[in-house]
Every structure is written in C-alpha cells, then in structure tokens.
C-alpha cells in the first residue's frame, strides 16, 4: 500500500477480507441499496393497479447489477488516489486484494448481465437509461469531472439521481414529469450530502489533489453552499404535494426531515464542532431514505 496516507495511530490494523467480501466491497453495497430504495419508490408510484411483480424484480436486479458495475469501475479508476486518502486506502485495490484486470472483468460481467436483464426482461428505455447513468458516473464523473472542476458532484449528480426514473420506466415503459420530479429531489440532495463529507475529509482531497469545493473555494464557502442547497431541497420536496402526486402524510414527513437537514446545515455553518460535518453527512442519508419511504407509505395509504 502507498505509504503516503497519514494513518491515525488509533486506527485498527487492516485485516484482509475474504475474496467474496472484497468483490462485494467493489460494488458499494450500501450506496446501491439506497439507490434501489429510490428505484422501488419509482416502481411503486408508476405501477398500474395490478402490481407487476416479475417486471419489478427483474428491473431492480438489473439496476442493482449495473450500479454495482459502475461502482467497480469507480474503484478501478480511482485506485491511485484511493491510496492517498484515509477514507479509502483500505479498499480492495489499494490493499492489493484484487488485481485491476480482475476488477475490470468483474465490472464488465456485472454490467453485461444487468443490461441483459433489463433489455430482455424489462424494456429498452430502462436498459439504455441505466447504461447512460453507468457511463455518466463511472466514466464522465470518475475519469474526468472529479479531477476537473469543483462542480463535479453537481454536474454528475444527475447520473446518481436517475434510479427513481429507472424504476418508473421499468413499469411504465416511458418517461414522465412525475418520474423526473423524483430525480430532481435526489439531484438537489446530492451536493449538500457529498459536500458535508468533503468538508469533513478536506485534508484527504487536498492530499489527493482532487478539486472538491472545500479545496478550491474554502470550507466556509462550502458550508454556505450546503445550507443554501438544503433550503432549495425543502422547496423542491414540496412539489410532489403541490402537483397532487402525494398527500398530507408525505408533506408532513418532508417538512420535518428537511427542517432537520437545514438545522444540521445551520449548525455546520454557524456553530460547528469537530463532528458536525460527519453528522450532517450521516443525517442526509437517513433523511433521503425516510423521505422516499414516506412517499411510498403515503402512496399506499391514499390508494386504500
């Protein structure tokens, strides 16, 4: 492993994973599960009165496989900078647990199987949209934008925000304004979510020479941006209720969850502690999960 990483003395010694765990790590399973939740909500909100279970299962499986493929490509491309960052130096490639050639083969296999599931068992529009998202994240963001501009996560956020629309097209075979609205929610959520982590790990990004916003514009500027984005997200999250896509249960949940996000961002900006940035990052994950769970619960509560 590259010894340029500054290791915390309290950090536990690295213990090698089993081979299957190393491959699982390449797929970023926690990230994929969150994506699948948003895709599931898209499926349920777009589904006809008789729920198409088989198509939904094939759709989620195909989306999961292609998302895992994109994550593996991200690991492959970022393996050199991952060696320099405390957050990522224990990943399988920096630790030499899997060769780059095997990671590439694994990514191609996952992506190929996932695409086949979608185009054969689901529909062409979902297959091609998922492929476009994979390329957007794994290639456009990881290979170029991440290293080129502090707005990397904003521009490429669209690729990561697509799962709700992919779920929608899985059961409808077409794009719609409602599906794109779900995408907009995740798209607006992504910058404050990731910038909170970047504030916490700013030294990592400086060491790796990655132009994240706190590196190029400073931590205080980034904190202000996070706060403004949480306000924008609160407003965007009102739209499902305002257009009749959701009801009062979702509205109340949205207001509570987004108020919590704004309060975390306010504390990060004006009264931070050493842990505030990471607390904001972690809260944002639960906030998105619960927000989409509220959309789902509201949908089925109103339909009964």
TrEMBL record:
Transmembrane region positions? 31-51, 57-77, 98-119, 125-145, 152-171, 177-199, 226-243, 280-297
Where does the protein principally reside?
A: membrane
Listed A to Z, the keywords are: Cell membrane, Heme biosynthesis, Membrane, Transferase, Transmembrane, Transmembrane helix
Give the EC number(s) listed in the UniProt record.
2.5.1.141
Catalyses which reaction(s): heme b + (2E,6E)-farnesyl diphosphate + H2O = Fe(II)-heme o + diphosphate
Q: Which GO terms describe its biological process?
A: heme O biosynthetic process
Name the Gene Ontology molecular function terms of this record: protoheme IX farnesyltransferase activity
Which Gene Ontology terms of cellular component type are present?
plasma membrane
- Per UniProt, the enzyme's principal EC class comes to transferase
Membrane topology field: Multi-pass membrane protein
Pathway(s) per entry? Porphyrin-containing compound metabolism; heme O biosynthesis; heme O from protoheme: step 1/1
Q: What PROSITE patterns does the record point to?
A: UBIA
Instruction: Report the locations given in the UniProt record.
Output: Cell membrane
Q: What other facts are recorded? A: Carbon 2 of the heme B porphyrin ring is defined according to the Fischer nomenclature.
UniProt lists the family membership as follows:
Belongs to the UbiA prenyltransferase family. Protoheme IX farnesyltransferase subfamily.
Q: What does this protein do?
A: Converts heme B (protoheme IX) to heme O by substitution of the vinyl group on carbon 2 of heme B porphyrin ring with a hydroxyethyl farnesyl side group.
Q: What is this protein called?
A: Protoheme IX farnesyltransferase
Organism of origin is Vibrio agarilyticus
Source lineage? Bacteria, Pseudomonadati, Pseudomonadota, Gammaproteobacteria, Vibrionales
């Amino acid at each position: 492993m590259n010894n340029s990483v500054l290791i915390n003395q309290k950090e536990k010694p690295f213990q090698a994973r089993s081979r299957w765990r190393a491959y699982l790590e390449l797929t970023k399973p926690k990230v994929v599960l969150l994506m699948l939740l948003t895709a599931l909500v898209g499926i349920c909100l777009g589904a006809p009165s008789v729920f198409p279970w088989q198509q939904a299962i094939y759709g989620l499986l195909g989306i999961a496989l292609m998302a895992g493929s994109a994550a593996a490509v991200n690991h492959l491309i970022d393996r050199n900078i991952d060696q320099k960052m405390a957050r990522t130096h224990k990943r399988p490639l920096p630790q030499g647990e899997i060769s780059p050639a095997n990671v590439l083969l694994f990514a191609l296999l996952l992506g190929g199987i996932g695409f086949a599931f979608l185009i054969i068992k689901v529909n062409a529009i979902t297959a091609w949209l998922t492929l476009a998202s994979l390329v957007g994240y794994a290639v456009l963001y990881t290979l170029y934008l991440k290293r080129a501009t502090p707005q990397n996560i904003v521009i490429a956020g669209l690729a990561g925000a697509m799962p709700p629309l992919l779920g929608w097209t899985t059961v409808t075979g077409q794009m719609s304004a409602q599906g794109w609205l779900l995408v907009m929610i995740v798209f607006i959520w992504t910058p404050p979510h990731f910038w909170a982590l970047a504030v916490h790990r700013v030294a990592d990004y400086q060491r790796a020479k990655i132009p994240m916003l706190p590196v190029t514009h400073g931590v205080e500027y980034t904190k202000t941006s996070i706060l403004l984005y949480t306000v924008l997200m609160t407003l965007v999250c009102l739209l499902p209720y305002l257009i009749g896509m959701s009801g009062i249960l979702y509205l109340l949940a949205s207001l509570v969850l987004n108020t919590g996000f704004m309060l975390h961002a306010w504390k990060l900006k004006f009264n931070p502690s050493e842990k505030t940035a990471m607390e904001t990052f972690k809260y944002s994950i639960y906030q998105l999960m619960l927000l989409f769970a509220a959309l789902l619960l509201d949908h089925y509560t109103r339909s009964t």
